[in-house]
Amino acid sequence: MTIKLASLSADLSKEREGEWIEPKEWPGLDLENPGAMTPLPGLGFLVRSTNYPDYVVARQKVLEDLKKEYPEGIIPPDVLAAAEGRLAVDHLLLGWRGLDVDYSPQNATDAATAEEHRVLRNIVYWCAGRVGKKQVEFVKAATKN
């Protein structure tokens, strides 16, 4: 089988401007069946890609600063949550729908930087990792007569 090269390319416009991504389900939300996937109907995030250039540069800077502040390599969970959340809000997360709280920059900051909202951060980063990706396509082999 041969793969179409164009299908492996990223949609840079979506990566930089954002795309609505709807996670259909998420693991670990059902306490009685932690291995099960829980449906998330109506939930969606307008996010840029984790390949968005401003995010990539800012993330590198944050990592360098954290290495200086914590040279032993052990970053407290609340500090790491705040850093990851701030990066998400400043560079990736542009909106949401399907939550009981309306999207606003302040609501996003409050939630994304709070240590206890790791599930939200994980979902946002998962969505951001999907932005601009295409479905792989294959070249149909010529049939012989």
Q: Main β-sheet: number of strands, strand sense, barrel status?
A: 3 strands, antiparallel
Mind telling me the C-alpha Rg? 19 Å
Structural class: alpha+beta
Q: Helix and strand string, N-terminal first?
A: EHEEEEHHEHHE
Provide the number of structural domains: 1
Strand arrangement within the widest β-sheet reads: 2-5-6
Overall, the morphology is globular
Task: Give the mean pLDDT.
Answer: 94
- Proportion of residues in extended strands: 15-25%
Rounded to the nearest angstrom, the distance between the terminal CA atoms is 19 Å
Q: Count the strands?
A: 7
Which spans have pLDDT < 50 for at least 5 consecutive residues?
A: none
Helix content: 40-55%
Number of helices: 5
Overall description:
- By secondary structure, this protein is of the alpha+beta class.
- Helices cover 41% and strands 15% of the residues.
- The strands form three sheets. It has a three-stranded antiparallel sheet with strand order 2-5-6. Strands 1-7 form a two-stranded antiparallel sheet.
- The model has no long low-confidence stretch (mean pLDDT 94).
Give a concise summary.
With 145 residues, this protein is of the alpha+beta class. The protein has helices at 12-17, 53-69, 77-92, 105-112, 118-130; strands spanning 2-3, 19-21, 25-27, 37-39, 44-47, 93-97, 138-139.
